[in-house]
Amino acid sequence: MKHSIIVIPEAEQDILSAFSWYEEKRTGLGHDFLLNLEAGLEVIVRDPYIFPVEYKQTRKHLIKRFPYIIVYVIDKNHVIVLAVLHGRRNPDLVENRI
To answer: Which pTM was predicted?
Structure first.
């Protein structure tokens, strides 16, 4: 069964911030980030249980080519994206979103 994706507003802001940062560095790089993010979300939707459970039932997927992770939880038929964070950011930021 295919899961639907729900991206919480805070995660949407994470994505927008990363997109803007990459676009400032080089035109088009932000769009490359979004394409790789979308590919990562497709992997998660296909099999959300592929990544191990971590803190408070969260799971993480590393986005290809970019040092960002997608942090998500599974709730019935939904994948809820809690954050899209740079790999070096403090993981405690996600605690407030759980």
So the answer is: 0.89
Pick the CATH number of 4-97 from 3.30.2310.20, 2.40.50.140, 3.30.420.10, 3.30.70.920: 3.30.2310.20
List, for residues 47-80, the tens digit of each pLDDT value.
Answer: 999 999 988 899 999 999 999 999 999 998 999 9
Count CB atoms within 10 A of the CB of residue 84: 28
Q: What is the tens place of the pLDDT at every residue in 1-54?
A: 678 999 999 999 999 999 999 999 999 999 999 999 999 999 999 999 999 998
Domain coordinates of the chain in residue numbers? 4-97
